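COMPLEX REQUEST
Ligand: phosphoenolpyruvate
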Amino acid sequence: GTGRRTLVAGNWKMNLNHLEAIALVQKVAYDLKPAELETVETVVFPPFVDLRSVQTTIDGDKLAVGYGAQDLSPFDSGAHTGDISGAMLAKLGCAYVIVGHSERRTDHHETDAVVAAKAAAAYKHGLTPIVCIGEHEDVRVAGTHIEHCLTQLAGSLAGITPKQAETIVVAYEPVWAIGTGRTASAQDAQDMCAAVRGKLAELFTPEIAAGIRVLYGGSVKASNAAELFTMPDVDGGLVGGASLVAEEFTAIVRSGP
Ligand code: PEP
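STATUS: Structure written out below.
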């Protein structure tokens, strides 16, 4: 989109042990040219247990690929067995954290209020949240997907200040397109991303909305990324399956403007 730096985010989900993570991040980072990484911000999201290895690899080799986590606790510390705090992620050098992915909303019953609390926790610890929204197929069939997603967006951003919103990233991920091979059409992605930007203008200001990156996610591949990324309100992609294959992921990064 206009004036916004394209962002390609690779969500590895629950895949790759720490040795496989090192191998993949090296392949991706050495294959992409500095100029390509300058044009398209490229960030990977390994499982928690891989973050230290990814950090060491990226820092040690001064690689221009960013990394972040797939989730964080809304709490700062304490009696929350199995959870990971924003402070821990910041200490590992994470720049971003995904919040409200549909798989978290489904597997862990995360509500918009929980997602908003996680986004707030991210900012508190100096991390930038990538806030995910998206409709299930029945909502798309009923034709109420835009209002559904805008309600989800407002709820997931509750309490976020205008200053925080300046750096936030929103990912529109229709649930029926995630991991199914059924990508939304570029026009459908554009229509929703434009509606999201309109809502962001209402929640914050038009100037802030004009600077926020809105990504599309859902079966993004090398073969469809270029068309999606040329749409005016689509500022990049959140990529799941295709981010696990170095050649496929780098081809998606190269599909940026
Ligand atoms: C995702 O995990 O956010 C995603 C969009 O997955 P996939 O690209 O595999 O559909």
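REMARKS: Residues 11, 13, 173, 178-179, 217-220, 238-242 surround phosphoenolpyruvate (CB under 6 Å). Residues 145-216 form one domain.
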